[in-house]
Amino acid sequence: MNATEFTVRGRRFVRGERTVVMGILNVTPDSFSGDGRLSPSDAIERAAAQYAAGADIIDIGGESTRPGHVQIPIAEEIERVVPVIRAVRERFADWPISIDTYKPEVARAALAAGADCINSIWGASDELIALAVESGATLAIMHNRKKIYEGEIVEEVLRALGADARRARERGVPAERIVLDPGIGFGKTPDQNIAVLAGLERLVALGYPTLLGTSRKSTLGKLAGRVRPDDRIFATAATTALAVRAGIDIVRVHDVAATRDVVAVSDAIVRNWRPLHWTE
Predict the structure, then answer these.
(1) Which residue range is the domain that position 14 belongs to?
(2) Which residues are catalytic?
(3) What's the pTM value of the predicted model, to 2 decimals?
(4) What pLDDT shows up at residue 38?
């Protein structure tokens, strides 16, 4: 299996050409990073700032996934995300939007409001796969477990994501619309997170587009001695550069401007990328 490109809202991304930046836009009051926004007007300005800073995709989420979070009702999640997606879509007609949800009802409402991708932290349910087939949306599948996995974590991530991807393909989702995310910080110990990051090349070798979300995660805080999530920009940058080296296609981040600098330099070195109008 080797998908060489993927397309979102008519934008064609060639794998290995450059790293795609996905900006995080939380419309929750309890985001772990303290950057949640509930007002559509505030969210639009945040989206505009992220696009201006170089985000290729905006990922909008209405339910916190921080440790100890409380699941909110489907109707409440829809009420949070749909007005924001609709408003962002009206202002930015051509820019890709992702909905960060594992709930089929929320995903369907988000796609109807203008989203292009479904980003599920709980893998690929039958309902989400069917919705991706029906709508033509890209489906990002993340590895997650309710309990810490006690075996060899890299093998578990590869096995689980490979199985989900095969199931999605068998049911009609093209390989270029299946994105695999190893789920850093979800159902894993800090040492397991580090092991997964050290094994990213093996994830890339599965042949599907890949996504990595390490932004401001607690493992990075433990390593760098940074308690506050917004003090972990440099630690996140380190994992971003290593992700580019491993061949990861998309990085999901809070700090878009800083990440654009990291991937610009990393892509130039690793992927022979150059900015427009580059001259020696």
Answers:
(1) 5-270
(2) 217, 252
(3) 0.95
(4) 63
